Amino acid sequence: MKTLNILFLCTGNSCRSILAEATFNALTGPHMHAMSAGSHPTGFVHPRSLALLQRAGIPTAGLYSKSWDDLPGTPDIVITVCASAAGETCPAYFGPAIRAHWGVDDPAKATGSEAEIEAAFTTAYQILRRRIEAFLALPWTRWEEGGDVALQAELARIGEQ
After folding, report:
1. What is the CATH number of the domain that holds 44?
2. Catalytic residue among 15, 45, 58, 82
3. Where is 127: in which H helix or E strand?
4. PANTHER family, alphabetically (predicted)?
């Protein structure tokens, strides 16, 4: 069985896509692998993202902010996690891949008290984790023979939850 490569994509690759990459890889088996990237990476992983992942027991070794130009391989599935409804410009991936959008507000832009900022990171993580768990619960044998349209529809449905 071929490894399914999933790319979580946003603009800065410092929070949401990093949270998704690490969470996905912690929850999946050897036949799926997540990576993350940004169209304009910040060059650092937000410290609150790392702290949240560590509190959740998710490994953070090797996580770094990277450009989509530096991907180690071609993704089979690309999931954008930017919040286009908030006026954020989502990068468009033009390579051959199944695409879905799972918009999540950027916790790096949260303002307010320490508790409010921390709550924004926790909310982003919880949304992404629920969606990843739904993704991993899909009946994968159904798509092994080329059901890309149905898979894309399922991924879109998950992003609306």
Report:
1. 3.40.50.2300
2. 82
3. helix 114-136
4. ARSENATE REDUCTASE
